Amino acid sequence: MSDEEWKEYAKGLLKAEIARKNLSLIDVARKLEAMGISESPQNISNKINRGTFGAIFMLQILKAVGCKEIRL
């Protein structure tokens, strides 16, 4: 896969997990805030849509939305 395809894959994975939990980005921002992580809904959207976020951000989002398992 090309780098662009990897970006799309990572972006899709996060978007799918957020949608699967039926959460808005406002909900995700609130859940992150409860974990002590300050991210605005717009900032979350920008990072996800770029697809170039780091592993830490990805894990924080997955933890915040209650994802227990990832299937690749």
Describe the structure.
This protein has helices at residues 3-20, 25-34, 41-50, 55-64. It is mainly alpha-helical. The longest helix has 18 residues, at 3-20. The two termini are 14 Å apart. The model has no long low-confidence stretch (mean pLDDT 96).
The backbone outline, from C-alpha atoms, is globular
Question: What is the subunit organization of this protein?
Answer: single chain
Radius of gyration, Cα only, in angstroms?
A: 12 Å
Tally the helices: what do you get?
Answer: 4
The H/E string reads HHHH
Mean pLDDT, rounded to whole units? 96
Low-pLDDT windows of residues: none
Main β-sheet, in a few words? none
Give the distance, in angstroms, between the N- and C-terminal Cα atoms.
14 Å
Helices, strands, pairings?
Layout: H1 3-20, H2 25-34, H3 41-50, H4 55-64
Helix pairs in contact: 2-3
Short description:
It is built from four helices and no strands. The longest helix is centred in the first third of the chain and has 18 residues, at 3-20. It has helices at residues 3-20, 25-34, 41-50, 55-64.
Offer a few descriptive terms.
single chain, 72 residues, mainly alpha, 67% helix
